[in-house]
Amino acid sequence: MKDGNQYLLKVQDELSVYQRHILDDSVELTTTQQETLEKINSVRAWLRDGYSDGKVLARLKTTFRLQDRRAREVLVMAYATYGELRLGRDKDGVKAVYAEMFRQAAQAAADAGDYRAQAAMLKEAAKIDGAYDNQKQVDIESKKKPTKVVIKVKTINVGTAPAATPQIQDIAHEIIP
Question: 0.85 cut: is pTM over it?
Answer without folding.
Answer: no
